[in-house]
Amino acid sequence: MDKGGYENVEDVVRILEKLGQRLTPQRIIVAKIILENVKKHPSFKEIHAIASKQLPRLGVSTTYMIMKMLEEAGVITTFEANGETHIDSPHPHINIVCQDTGQIIDIEDNDLTNEVIQAITLASSKQGVSISKPVVIVKAHCTNGKQG
Fold first, then answer.
1. Alpha-carbon span 122 to 141, nearest angstrom
2. Domain limits at 66?
3. Which of 40, 92, 42 is nearest to 67 (CA)?
4. pLDDT in tens, 63-81
5. β-strand partners of 104
6. E strands along the chain, which residues?
7. pTM of the model
8. Do 15 and 80 fall within a single domain?
């Protein structure tokens, strides 16, 4: 497993079995698609479109429920950007959301990420807020900068 994430569908199957979830073909296919695409930060709509090619009768609500189940199991996390829900790896990192290109870039410097999350957690606790799942999103303009 890579940095707290899940690399293959067998890992996900084990997690779902431990949680007592049924292993339906839909769940396995959607999980596989998510794992194959998670680094690209696909939107929920993109995941459903890819899955629908393999499972033409797959409903939007079924895809959504599978995504939420995987999120609750800690396999993925989600965040909102550009008006859409995006899928992401659950390990701590910083997401740069390019406002002009729509691209999402991961900053995976563990020292920087840990410092940022600690600072946010400390500042939040002073306001009486307890952070359970930190997702750091930075909005930027990327047309003149590095694009991954």
1. 28
2. 9-88
3. 42
4. 999 999 999 998 999 999 9
5. 97
6. 77-81, 84-88, 94-98, 104-107, 136-140
7. 0.81
8. yes
